[in-house]
Amino acid sequence: MILVGIGSNLSGKAGSPIETVKESLRAMQTRGMTILTCSDFYDTPPVGPSGQGHYVNAVVRLGSVIGPHGLLRELQTIENQFGRQRSVKWGARTLDLDVLDWHGHLVHGRLNLPHPEISRRGFVLRPLMDVAPEWRHPETGLSVRALWNRLSVTERLKIMKL
């Protein structure tokens, strides 16, 4: 199973963050990716520098013959098409596309899989439960539901379905 996280909190070429997320789904399908399932969209608070607006987040389950590093390159090409700027770590962005998992493989280097923050990010775990409720962390064996339940109630309540 291939899982990709999507986020946006700045308007860009495609319009509002929600329109950017929708357009990014279309862009993925033109670059060798088949969207098998897309989660609901969620309104989530930012992680990182203060002063940012809330994000629109989603997770997609993909079908593709592209390997993990090729997938990362394709996703970064799409981000660039949507005006992604990489100037501030965890800063506001028009589009963020993250490979979360690629068939349960463990990868370390320029690309780290599963995504190193997946276990701590409610904005990933909540939509991940929509598309892959059976998913288990490849290193810990914990289910997505167990990881979600490890988050504080306060953090879970901040993530709202749009």
- The top level CATH class name: Alpha Beta
Count, helices: 5
Whole-number mean pLDDT: 94
Helix/strand order, N-terminal first: EHEEEHEHHHE
Overall body shape: globular
The total strand number stands at 6
Question: Structural class, please?
Answer: alpha+beta
Quote the beta fraction: 15-25%
CATH topology name, in short, is Alpha-Beta Plaits
CATH superfamily: 7,8-Dihydro-6-hydroxymethylpterin-pyrophosphokinase HPPK
Instruction: Please name the CATH architecture.
Output: 2-Layer Sandwich
Share of helix among residues? Answer: 25-40%
User: What characterizes the major β-sheet?
Assistant: 6 strands, antiparallel
Return the domain count: 1
Radius of gyration: 15 Å
Spans of at least 5 consecutive residues whose pLDDT stays below 50 are none
What distance lies between the first and last C-alpha atoms, to the nearest angstrom?
25 Å
If you had to describe this structure to a student in words, what would you say it looks like?
GO terms for molecular function: 2-amino-4-hydroxy-6-hydroxymethyldihydropteridine diphosphokinase activity; ATP binding; kinase activity. The protein is of the alpha+beta class. The protein has a single domain, classed as 2-Layer Sandwich (Alpha-Beta Plaits). It contains 5 helices and 6 strands, in the order βαβββαβαααβ. It has helices at residues 17-29, 68-81, 122-131, 144-150, 153-157, and strands at 2-8, 34-38, 42-44, 55-63, 96-102, 160-161. Strands 1, 2, 3, 4, 5 and 6 form a 6-stranded antiparallel β-sheet that branches. Helix 3 (122-131) packs antiparallel against helix 4. It is globular, with a radius of gyration of 15 Å.
